[in-house]
Amino acid sequence: MDALLLALIGCLLGEIGDKGQWLVLALATRYDRNGAIIAGIIVAAVANAAISAFAGGWIGPMLGADARLLFMALSVLFLGAGLFWPVRPPDPLARWPLGAFLTSAIGLFILFLGDGPQFLILGIATRTADPVLAGAGGALGIIAALVPVVLLRGQIMAMLPVRAIRRTGGALLLIIGACLALSAMGRL
């Protein structure tokens, strides 16, 4: 259950104000087909979370307990540092002639590859040996961050203090990641 909750909260926090939300906002405004875009979000989030969870489940047994904890610490530090990075809106995929669902699913899948939340799911799955729960939590966190943008369009971005959320969340994740890393190295 820890894997589910950690991945859900971490991925939700990692997606607030990130490129995924900006891409979803552009697609929702362009297509005005909420159901198709939400379905594309779900497919992309589940596919990326499944890849990360599978990789974490595969890597985890090869590592010792301290190495798994250090791997998770690095994923938390990576996500925390990423929240301080300035976010530029991604290409809105205006030239993609695939329709709302496929453009959303493929575009978000590509955008999520190697992103902080995907690495966090990998780290949690590696550490906890619960890849299914880590993947489910991560996918739910990403979906929870992106679906309101489709439904409320730009209103949600104006309502949320995105900069404060990203900075506070980044600081919190950096502290947690540093504590995990020190614990893994026997310094805490």
Explain this structure.
The chain has 188 residues and is mainly α. It has one domain. Helix content is 79%, strand content 0%. It has helices spanning 2-15, 19-31, 34-59, 65-82, 100-112, 116-128, 131-152, 154-159, 162-184. α2 runs antiparallel to α5 and α3 packs across α6. The radius of gyration is 16 Å and the shape is globular. The mean pLDDT is 91.
Task: Give the helix/strand layout.
Elements: H1 2-15, H2 19-31, H3 34-59, H4 65-82, H5 100-112, H6 116-128, H7 131-152, H8 154-159, H9 162-184
Helix pairs in contact: 1-6, 1-7, 2-5, 2-7, 3-5, 3-6, 3-7, 4-6, 4-9, 6-7
Key words describing this protein structure:
188 residues; mainly alpha; 9 helices; globular
Tell me, rounded to a whole number, the average pLDDT: 91
Find the structural class using helix and strand composition: mainly alpha
Largest sheet: none
Approximate helicity band: over 70%
* Secondary structure: number of strands: 0
Q: How many structural units, i.e. domains?
A: 1
Q: Spans of 5+ residues with little confidence (pLDDT < 50)?
A: none
Strand content: under 5%
Counting H and I runs of at least 4 residues, what is the number of helices?
A: 9
Morphology call: globular
